[in-house]
Amino acid sequence: MASLRTDGVTVVFGGNRALDEAGFEAEAGRITGLIGPNGAGKSTLFDVVSGLRRPQSGTVTLDGHDITRATPAQRARRGMARTFQRLELFGRLTVRDNLLVAAELGARGRNSARTADGILQRIGLTADADTAADALPTGAARLLEVGRALAGRPRVLLLDEPAAGQDADETRRFAALLRDVAAEGCAVVLVEHDMGLVMSVCDQVYVLDLGRIVACGPPADIQQDQTVLAAYLGEA
Ligand SMILES: Nc1ncnc2c1ncn2[C@@H]1O[C@H](COP(=O)(O)OP(=O)(O)OP(=O)(O)O)[C@@H](O)[C@H]1O
């Protein structure tokens, strides 16, 4: 069972401390939310966790192994998958081929076509299987990106604003999907501005403000926290 952890992660861009000793933990079987105002450092923290950015200080550990210096590919081999705020699909490939590519990479002896078809059904895009990814509306494209991450059977799933552009029905289906994925033992980390979604699916929520974790706890506590209300929710 995977457990992901960051300790004391600091990233400085010029004079701007994008992350200031940020620490959080995500456990297998749980959905961990990471919220905060624009520019709080959420995507930068995902970049550090997924290996796209080396922090000036601090550590990232997965199942107790220090992976701070591991490449993104090494992290992926350890079971980490990520989606991006800006969609990163293979636009000219069909929906199904986007899933097949990922399924092939994570095949480990499994039948990739069956994996891809199972995920198509899971994300509700079977009817769009032969559509080019570029032609999908944003909400569906986001589901496809999550599906592609799932095709590699991740143990840790990092989702950067997956619900942006989804309609209410897509978000409802998406919430159910996330709960299922966590119930299968995956550690899900959710960066999201849709507070309804965050508060309804997360087991634990961390709040970032100006690069610092200013609060952490179950959604019910976070919604009452005065620091959080001042930093973020009060702003909405
Ligand atoms: N490549 C970069 N070069 C310089 N500054 C950067 C870079 N990437 C991020 N920043 C700055 O770091 C801070 C954190 O940005 P980040 O994108 O991580 O925030 P965020 O919480 O993900 O915001 P949003 O909710 O708007 O996506 C911001 O002040 C941002 O301007």
From TrEMBL:
Protein's name according to its UniProt entry: ABC transporter ATP-binding protein
GO molecular function: ATP binding
Entry annotated with the keyword ATP-binding: yes
CDD domains cross-referenced by the UniProt entry: ABC_Mj1267_LivG_branched (cd03219)
Ranges of residues in domain ABC transporter: 4-235
Keywords attached to this entry: ATP-binding, Nucleotide-binding, Transport
SUPFAM superfamilies: P-loop containing nucleoside triphosphate hydrolases
Name of a matching Pfam family: BCA_ABC_TP_C
UniProt keyword annotation of Isomerase present: no
Alphabetized InterPro entries for the sequence: AAA+_ATPase, ABC_AA/LPS_Transport, ABC_transporter-like_ATP-bd, BCA_ABC_TP_C, P-loop_NTPase
SMART domains for this protein: AAA
